Structures are given as C-alpha cells and as structure tokens.
Amino acid sequence: MSRLFYAVNRETGERWQPTRDSEWEEYLVMYDSGYIATVESNGWETSVIPLCSKTWKVVFNEGMQNKIDKSGES
After folding, report:
1. Strand partners, 37
2. 7-61: per-residue pLDDT in tens?
3. Would you say 57 and 7 are in contact if contact means Cβ atoms under 8 Å apart?
4. How far is the C-alpha of 11 from the C-alpha of 74, rounded, in Å?
5. What's the total number of domains in the chain?
6. How much is the pTM?
7. In which domain, by residue range, is 60 found?
C-alpha cells in the first residue's frame, strides 16, 4: 500500500484493497498523468490494469497533499 495516496470507490466510499490471493501480489500505482492502476505479479508474470477514473478517485495523504500545495505556490 502506498503511504502517499489511496483510491476510494466513488459509489460506495470504500477504499481499494488488494485481493488476498496467495499466488499473486497486487498493489496500486499512479501514472505521471495522475491516473491509477493495479499491478498484479506472481514473480513470473506481471499485469497492469488501469482503474476507471469514473469509479475510483485518488485521495492524497496529508503529507503528500502538503507537498503538492507547496509546489503550486512557486
């Protein structure tokens, strides 16, 4: 899980959580553009699956939001 941001389902308000499959590791990533995706890997194969921006919104943790706000002041 990222310490800088997380995703929230716009309809239910629930946070995105990785599935608990023993073979696959799953985590959330953010592109430079601000879009988010899940990465699934089992050591041999890796898949990147974009999350729908209409369903999921990005929420920045306080520390990251402060950095974003300060960079906009310059």
Report:
1. 29, 50
2. 999 999 999 988 876 688 888 999 988 899 999 988 889 999 999 999 999 888 7
3. yes
4. 35
5. 1
6. 0.71
7. 5-73
